[in-house]
Structure formats: C-alpha cells, structure tokens
Write a structure and sequence with these properties.
- With 221 residues, the protein is α+β, with helices and mostly antiparallel strands.
- It is globular and about 60 Å long.
- Strands 1, 2, 3, 4, 5, 6, 7, 8, 9 and 10 form a ten-stranded antiparallel β-sheet that branches.
- Strand 2 and strand 3 (51-57) form a beta hairpin.
- The protein has helices spanning 2-34, 77-85, 116-122, 124-129, 149-155, 158-166, 203-219, and strands at residues 37-38, 45-48, 51-57, 65-70, 90-98, 107-112, 131-133, 142-146, 171-177, 188-196.
- The longest helix has 33 residues, at 2-34.
- The N and C termini lie far apart (59 Å).
- Helix 1 crosses helix 7 (203-219).
- Helices cover 40% and strands 26% of the residues.
- It has seven helices and ten strands.
C-alpha cells in the first residue's frame, strides 16, 4: 500500500508538471504576439503541485492577463478518487482587466444552461441585473446572460460566438462586468473558466484566442 502511494505521488506530480508545460508551451506564441512581458523570464510560476500561473503585461488595451492552470491533485491518491466521484477535472481560468475608450455599463456572461441559477447566486451583478437573452449560433448547452438583448448583440459578434461554440463542452463561464474595477482606467473585468481535457490540449490556444478577441472588441465599444 505504501509503495502504491509513493508511486502515485511521483507519477501524479510528474503528470501535472507535463500538462502545465504542454499547455503553456501552446499558449506562448499567442502571448508573445500580444504581450511584451511574459511570466518570470517567460516561464509560468508553480504555486503548488496542482496550480500553475502565468502573468503577462504589455498589451495596450488591458492591464494584464493572468492564466491559472488548476489541476487535480494527482500526487494525492485520495484527491484523485474524490475528483472522479465528483466528476471534477483540470481547468484553466483567465482574468483580464480591460481598458475601454468610454465608461460603458456592461454585465454579460456565457454559462452552461445547467449552471444558470448557481452562477446568478454566485455573482451578484448577474443575479441583480442579467437575464437570459438569445444569441444566434451559441452552442446548444450554453446560455447568454445580459442586461439587455441590445447589449448582448453589441458584445457577441458572429466571430466571438463561433469561437465560443467551438469550445462548447469546455466552456464553464465567460463573465464580463463593470462591477469589478481594478483601476479606474480599466472599467471592465473579464474572467473566464474552461474545463481542460489533458488529452485535448489543442483546445488551449482556442481558449486564449476567444479571450483576446473579447478583450479587443469590448475595449473599443
């Protein structure tokens, strides 16, 4: 039993390390084309054996981008079993404060249909101001929450909707709000969460691509 635990600790640690290296290596070309300063000497920071972060700055229309890779605690056999029972896996979260040309009231989210009520309880801005609105072409399992149909139409361009829909099964939440202001010049904050299948890391650049397109579009509204 001890040997099994030790083996799992070693292989779990190495697997998480490999996943993080693979994911961030796939993101690096995009980050280098948009940001001047990436990570610590271009590398992600290991917060723990299951959490890696990458911070980048130098894009004119945003304060920074913070990408966090939150993985199953694979070195801990009990955590692996619990994650399987709860159907929880690896995920990527991305946070970006957006600089806008004007102070625009904006509260909008894309979430899974099954998570609408939970999301509205978790985020007071969505609970207080947002309702379901129709967005043509959005994935069948996804729902858009916004203050108005007009606002959703302005933010959700055909290109953005297409990219989100291509990631349909991976999207946990895409949330843009004016209720979280990091600094006065950054009137909007974008926070996204995507589930990550370690066997399908080709989707990782697509996740960053839709985030960057949302940032560029919303900054010009």
């Amino acid at each position: 039993l001890l040997l099994i635990y030790i083996s799992n600790y070693f292989f779990g640690y190495k697997k998480n390390q490999r996943i993080s290296e693979l994911c961030f290596s796939k993101l690096k070309p995009q980050l280098e084309s948009h940001f001047r300063n990436i990570g610590e000497n271009g590398q992600s920071k290991k917060e723990s054996c299951s959490l890696y972060k990458l911070y980048a700055t130098g894009k004119s229309n945003c304060g920074y981008i913070l990408i966090a890779l939150e993985m199953i605690k694979r070195k801990d056999l009990l955590s692996v079993l619990v994650s399987k029972l709860r159907n929880k896996g690896d995920r990527i979260t991305i946070e970006v404060p957006i600089r806008t040309t004007a102070s625009l009231p904006l509260i909008l989210a894309v979430v899974k249909q099954a998570d609408v009520q939970k999301t509205k309880k978790t985020y007071s801005d969505l609970g207080n101001f947002a309702n379901k609105v129709k967005v043509k072409g959005l994935g069948k399992d996804l729902v858009c929450l916004a203050e108005s149909q007009e606002l959703a139409s302005k933010c959700m361009t055909d290109s953005i909707v297409k990219k989100i829909s291509e990631l349909n099964s991976s999207v946990e939440s895409i949330h843009i709000t004016d209720q979280v202001v990091i600094r006065p010049e950054f009137c909007l904050t974008l926070r996204c969460a995507f589930s990550l299948d370690p066997k399908a890391t080709l989707n990782v650049p697509k996740m960053l691509s839709v985030v960057l397109e949302i940032v560029d579009h919303c900054s010009g509204l």
